[in-house]
User: Fold this.
Amino acid sequence: MSSSLDNYITAAKEKNLSDEQIKNALRLAGWPDSQINEAFTPSNTMLMPAPPAPHVGMWTGFLYIIFFISLYILASSIGVVFHHWVDQILPLPKDPYEYFSYYPDSVLQGAVAATLVTLPIFSYLAFLLKKQLIKKPFVKNLRSRKILIYITLISTFLIMLGHVIGTIYDFLQGSANSINAIAHLGVTLLIAGSIFGYFISEVRYDSNT
Amino acid sequence: MIATRKDILFFIELVALSAIAVVYALTQIPSPFEQQKLKWDQERVIDLGKLKNAIDQYYYTNAKLPEALAVVTSEGYSPDMLRKTDPQTDQPYTYRVTSPISYEICAVFVTANKDLASVDDYNYEKYDYQTYRNQFKHPQGTFCFSQKVQDQRYESNYPTPTRISSPTILPLPTNTPNPTSSL
Assistant:
């Protein structure tokens, strides 16, 4: 399209001439209707540029992966220590054929070390990512975040389900010390259930906002 | 907008559980300082156990006890596995011959393992220690173990085997030529 035609239309609009007046003036000057109509079609008018789609970088995805890994290690370490505690408070009858303890010192030492390392990482990332989510709500649609939340939901659900089934199975076989078994089940439901409940509420919150 | 109540509650729960777990675990395991002491004593027990085996080996080979630990070789072991000095003080272990077939070997222990159960403290990391701990139960302080060489070549608790004649079930055939085979 001719730039002189565009310039004329722009200048005429600035002088508050109507579209019909401009078109008549152009026809009188000899411009063909096809070019006049093309100059007035919406595709050739200056449109407001659409805003860029919100973009979340890979760095945020990486932070979510680290956050969930530290959560898994932290929860496992807490679980090991609490299960040990249950066996101390509610000991099982001594098995004369058991050659070694299931909880040597090294297991507790490993759990303490893992907790001391992962708790600060988890806490910092929980604060950082929540702050980012409040500031940029579109982060909730980040694919890696959604995948990790659903993996966590499935894992914690399977852990709880397996432990409940195992406890009932042992009870039916008559081989379980019922108080000890129920206490172990309570530890699992407390830790895995808290994580499951929190992320279920996150999923609901995401879908409602 | 700020973090929701569920965020804060979940965070507080995990931090509280972590704190309880760490405090509880630290009451159950020895302090790092105590652990170091236990490890030194366990290394001493392992050293003495391996030295005992090496002294037995020396006796089998030379038909006499070694005059000093310096002449004991690490036959059957790689050289770095037979340590003759204390891991903490680097002082040599005391060794004394008390008779042609007995000797004493001494070490200074910083803990006592005499009251430890033999099963409950099983730990994968200390397999060598588990091999020797029951032979070398010790109190805290300097302790000497009286040992006697065990020459397995000559000392046997098994009865001497006696020949038992098996009953004859069928008479053995005689080796006579078959007259038909020559035809």
